[in-house]
TrEMBL record, chain A:
InterPro entries found in the cross-reference section: PIG-T
A Pfam cross-reference name: Gpi16
Name this protein carries in UniProt: Phosphatidylinositol glycan anchor biosynthesis class T
A GO biological-process term: attachment of GPI anchor to protein
Lineage per the UniProt record: Eukaryota, Metazoa, Chordata, Craniata, Vertebrata
Keyword vocabulary terms for this entry: Signal
Gene Ontology cellular component annotations, sorted alphabetically: GPI-anchor transamidase complex
Record's signal peptide: 1-36
TrEMBL record, chain B:
Membrane-crossing segments per the record: 82-99, 166-186, 192-208, 229-251, 257-278, 285-306, 351-373, 385-407
Gene symbol of the encoding locus: PIGU
Biological processes, Gene Ontology terms: attachment of GPI anchor to protein; GPI anchor biosynthetic process
Topology relative to the membrane: Multi-pass membrane protein
Signal peptide as annotated in the record: none
GO cellular component terms, A-Z: GPI-anchor transamidase complex
Homology family: Belongs to the PIGU family.
Protein name per its UniProtKB record: Phosphatidylinositol glycan anchor biosynthesis class U
Length: 593, 435
């Protein structure tokens, strides 16, 4: 055999190395990160803004950004992220999350005057997560996950612990693709005390592919968004079907933000609105990464003949949909359409009321609820929940979930449910009593609501005295009780036809509707503020001293009686004073004492 | 003799029946002095409601009764008022019979000691007469039945009344000299509220005395009998605990009942010393002070047994009082039990030093409890310190009352052997001092 040696061999080796490196570079450079042929993009972004005038004269703006990724996050060692935020993707694959829903809300959605919300969230922070069934220690994963989310969203989610986490059995079903409904994989927590501010909005905006640089997200200016009576931002992650055959899974990240501008209600403005008035910005372009970018304006009116609303510029198209049991008409502005920015460079959608409406038609929603604490004093109390069914002829069941902290000791034997003056027995009841400093009360009930009725649910509680270190820094402000959750399939007046989820607007497609005759509603009641008796925080030392003194009094007197015996008093030589006196007396020549 | 007792029982039952029907019943059952987290009727009902829902009553932190109580009220919930009236009557009758028997024993013993010439010559005033002792059993029964504390406890349906009945039966069995029944009732009492464990010592001393077995560590009979009694006690305790296990098929009741008694997690105000102390305690000292406070009940037993080995029933009385002062969730029902024994020691009256002041303190405190509670919880014009102060005073009153009785008892014993009129060497009247 002949061995190549010397300078020739060196050149040959170099050539091989260059070829290898080039090949590697080519491989890496190919789109999609694998294979050679460029396939269709595996992820897509849709953005959407829905403006809906509320019956009270205010206006709600709902932003939805949906990133969809045709990738199985759990199976593959995914490392290349494009539109889907890497922080959340890694979280899902590390903690084997099946579904994650997080919302941060300031204010309360007034269902009675504002109508049924597309997506309500409870005041404060709400987090619920379904884990994969391969997770062994769900509580540990939940704890770590909430801590990481706390870091990502700059929220106090790290205060989620066993005292405010529950595992509901019926209220929270997976919204996405799921074949496991074992509720032990679910964790749900609400922090009603959480205050939402700019620091929570900024990280939320950073998750958007265009950030707040382009597209609808330019409207998200913090000083306008927090100058509202309701602000709710949320993140929903869930697996969905990749196509109609549903053989493989895609991941969907929905970022939603709802704000209600209420300058009309508080008497500072007219009922006319424009994007500029609301956000002090206008839209100039769609996000370049988005495959769909639309603005919807709800222009439906009760009476078809005289339209009350006038929208400028005139919409390019109109979309009709049946939403929440009601037929609604939306003016649609497609930001990707070249026609839109032909006339002017920016889009400032304006709404004008054609004639001033004297009487606001407050059509009450079919299902709404309110909750309050009654009773006086700091010893006991009663939580009352009123649930209204205003449907004229249909009865329907509702699942009520109550989570009450352990320091309000619920007495389930005092639970009374009355409808129209009669007792209403819940057909399903799941009660998990609280354990002191470990877990909260969980009460879940399935209650049948007769047509056109008010159902009153009352339960008594006792207020506990806590240790002085367990009180919040402002103890006399009170303690928050998280809102109760109502989940119901509300029968709709109109028959709704099933629409393709991919084609329909985003705001209609988060909750899957079972069939055409009913739609799913999840409502949250008001959070409660309950006062507890407080000890005097200024005197731990005094109390320790005084109580120990009493114990010592007992010890002292018993010790005396137990160890000593009775004796006849012997005449003593006297104390020091007597002896001194006697010395003086001796000197003076007087007989001693 | 039985007629006045029946009359007393009728009056007591009438008072209770009237209060059950009045609007006061609701008010009384909410009072923290009467119903503690351990024995409130509301919590018994809650436990049964949880059982009906298919939830273990011990899975939450509301129900802390023993499984035996569940079993009892599972059948008797409809007749609960009747049950509580009957338990009170039974307690009173048991105390009546026990004191009657005990008086006979005391009288016999006194006669024996006089015959043996153990007493000093001038103590005729201190010798107890059948006339004076005749009404004591009745007084004890009525003191229990008509004591406002007992009445309130019964009206609030505090299960403390049931514990009192068990303890009263235990005392009756002990005084009647039944080793087996005494051990069984003691184990039930222990099972119900843990602290009666300390009553083992006085019961054993009394039973030994009845069998004329001297309390000597070298005596074989003493050890034999002690082992027998302890074995009976432990066996019945094990049987009851196992029975409870089979009732619900879980051991959950052990941490939920005894863990709850010992670790004091519930700081709902009551008349005891624990609640405010642990509400204000620094977290890292908490465990230490829980131990220090719990030990108080058990701490005095051995020294008392040594000092009072000749007088086990007085020892029992002192121990009952110590339990009611130092238990973690005391109620006025516990106070009522030891107060029922006060007429039994009426012969000590002349040696009590502060009885007037102490009775005034206890009465005033009892009246101030609801007032200061109202000011703190409802009116908001006072704070927790007000209520705490009154619990402190109440407990100081109880402690001084008991130590006063103890002092008087020891003093009377001294006079009996040394003569009532003591003189010094120089013939002047002598003072008696503890040294």
């Amino acid at each position: 055999p002949h061995w190549v040696s010397g300078p020739e061999a060196e050149v040959q080796r170099m050539a091989w190395a260059v070829a290898a490196v080039l090949g590697l570079l080519l491989l890496l450079g190919s789109p999609g990160g694998c294979g050679g042929s460029p396939g269709p993009p595996r992820d897509s972004l849709r953005e959407e803004l829905l403006l809906s005038p509320l019956p009270s004269g205010d206006i709600a703006a709902t932003f939805q950004f949906r990133a969809r990724w045709d990738s199985e996050l759990h199976r593959e060692g995914v490392s290349h992220y494009r539109l889907f935020p890497k922080a959340l993707g890694q979280l899902i694959s590390k903690y084997l999350v099946r579904e994650l829903h997080l919302s941060l809300t300031q204010g309360f959605w007034r269902t009675r005057t504002w109508g049924q919300p597309y997506l309500q969230a409870p005041a404060g922070a709400e987090l619920w997560v379904w884990f994969q069934d391969s997770v062994t220690d769900v509580d540990k994963a939940w704890k770590e996950l909430s801590n990481i989310l706390s870091g990502i969203f700059c929220a106090s989610l790290n205060f989620i612990d066993s005292t405010n986490t529950v595992t509901p059995t019926a209220s929270f079903k997976p919204l996405g693709l799921a074949n496991v409904t074992d509720h032990h994989l679910l964790r749900y927590a609400v922090l009603p005390r959480e205050i939402v501010c700019t620091e929570n909005l900024t990280p939320w905006k950073k998750l958007l592919p265009c950030s707040s640089k382009a597209g609808l997200a330019v409207l998200l200016k913090a000083e306008r968004l927090f100058h509202t009576s309701y602000h709710s931002q949320a993140v929903h992650i869930r697996p969905i079907c990749r196509d109609a055959s549903c053989l493989s899974v895609s991941w969907e990240l929905r970022q939603t933000l709802t704000v209600v501008f209420d300058t009309f209600s508080i008497g500072q403005g007219k009922r006319d609105w424009s994007l500029f008035k609301m956000f002090s910005r206008t839209v100039t372009e769609a996000c370049p990464l988005a495959s769909e970018s639309k603005i919807y304006v709800d222009i439906s009116s009760k009476t078809q003949e005289n339209e009350l609303l006038e929208v400028t510029p005139p919409p390019l198209s109109v979309h009709e949909a049946s939403v929440q049991g009601d037929r609604r008409t939306y003016a649609v502005y497609d930001l990707l359409s070249p026609l839109l920015f032909n006339v002017s460079r920016s889009l400032n959608v304006q709404l004008k009321w054609k004639r001033p409406q004297d009487s606001l038609d407050l059509s009450t929603p079919v299902l709404h609820a309110q909750r309050y604490v009654s009773g006086y004093g700091l010893q006991t109390g009663e939580i009352s929940t009123l649930i209204y069914n205003t449907h004229p002829y249909r009865a329907f069941p509702v699942i009520l979930l109550e989570t009450v902290p352990w320091y309000l000791r619920l007495y389930v034997h005092t639970l009374v449910i009355t409808t129209k003056g009669k007792e209403n027995k819940p057909s399903y009841i799941h009660y998990q009593p609280a354990q002191d400093r470990r877990r909260p009360h969980l009460l879940e009930m399935l209650i049948q609501l007769p047509a056109n009725s008010v159902t009153k649910i009352t339960i008594q509680f006792e207020r506990a005295l806590l240790k002085w270190t367990e009180y919040t820094p402002d103890p006399n402000h009170g303690f928050y009780v998280s809102p109760s959750v109502l989940s119901a399939l509300v029968p709709s007046v109109l028959a709704m036809k099933a629409e393709d989820a991919e084609k329909s607007p985003l705001f209609t497609s988060l909750f899957p509707s079972a069939d055409g005759s009913s739609y799913f509603v999840r409502l949250y009641t008001e959070p409660l503020l309950v006062n507890l008796p407080t000890p005097d925080f200024s005197m731990p030392y005094n109390v320790i001293c005084l109580t120990c003194t009493v114990v010592a009094v007992c010890y002292g007197s018993f010790y005396n009686l137990l160890t000593r015996t009775f004796h006849v008093e012997e005449p003593s030589r006297g104390g020091l004073a007597k002896r001194l006196a006697n010395i003086i007396r001796k000197v003076r020549g007087v007989p001693p004492l | 003799m039985a007629a006045p007792l029946v009359l007393g029982i009728l009056v007591a039952v009438t008072v209770r029946a009237v209060l059950y029907r009045s609007s006061l019943a609701g008010f009384i059952s909410e009072r923290v002095e009467v119903a503690s987290p351990l024995n409130a009727w509301k919590r018994v009902v809650e436990g049964l409601a949880l059982l009906d829902l298919g939830v273990s009553p011990y899975s939450g932190d509301v129900f802390h009764e023993t499984p035996l109580i569940i079993y009892l009220f599972h059948f008797l919930i409809e007749y609960s008022e009747l049950v509580f009236m009957i338990t009170d009557v039974l307690t009173a009758v048991a105390l009546y019979l026990a004191v009657q028997d005990f008086n006979k024993v005391v009288f016999k013993k006194q006669k024996l000691l006089i015959e043996l010439d153990r007493y000093a010559s001038d103590v005729a005033e201190l010798i107890r007469t059948p006339m004076e002792m005749h009404y004591i059993p009745l007084k004890v029964a009525l003191f229990y039945l008509l004591n406002p504390y007992t009445v309130m406890s019964c009206v609030a349906k505090s299960t403390c009344a049931i514990n009192n009945t068990v303890i009263a039966f235990f005392i009756l069995a002990t005084i009647k000299g039944s080793t087996l029944l005494s051990a069984i009732f003691l184990s039930i009492a222990t099972y119900q509220s843990l602290y009666p464990l300390t009553l083992f010592a006085p019961a054993l001393l009394y039973l030994l005395q009845r069998q004329f077995i001297p309390v000597k560590l070298k005596s074989k009979d003493f050890w034999l009998y002690t082992t027998q009694y302890a074995a009976l006690y432990l066996c019945s305790l094990v049987v009851i605990v196992c029975l409870s296990f089979f009732l619900l098929n879980s051991w959950d009741f052990i941490p939920s009942v005894y863990g709850f008694i010992l670790s004091v997690p519930d700081l709902t105000p009551n008349i005891g010393l624990f609640w405010y102390f642990f509400a204000e305690m620094f977290e890292h000292f908490s465990l230490f002070f829980v131990c220090v406070f719990q030990i108080n009940v058990f701490f005095y037993t051995i020294p008392l047994a040594v000092k009072l080995k000749e007088h086990p029933i007085f020892f029992l009385f002192i121990q009952l009082a110590i339990i009611s002062i130092f238990k973690s969730y005391p109620t006025v029902g516990d106070v009522a039990l030891y107060m029922a024994f006060l007429p039994l020691w009426s012969h000590l009256y002349r040696f009590l030093r502060n009885i007037f002041i102490l009775s005034c303190v206890l009465i005033v405190c009892s009246l101030l409890f609801p007032v200061l509670w109202h000011l703190w919880i409802y009116a908001g014009s006072a704070n927790s310190n007000f209520y705490y102060a009154i619990t402190l005073t109440f407990n100081v009153g109880q402690i001084l009352l008991i130590s006063d009785y103890f002092y008087a008892f020891l003093r009377r014993e001294y006079y009996l052997t040394h003569g009532l009129y003591l003189t010094r060497k120089d013939g002047t009247e002598a003072m008696l001092v503890l040294k």
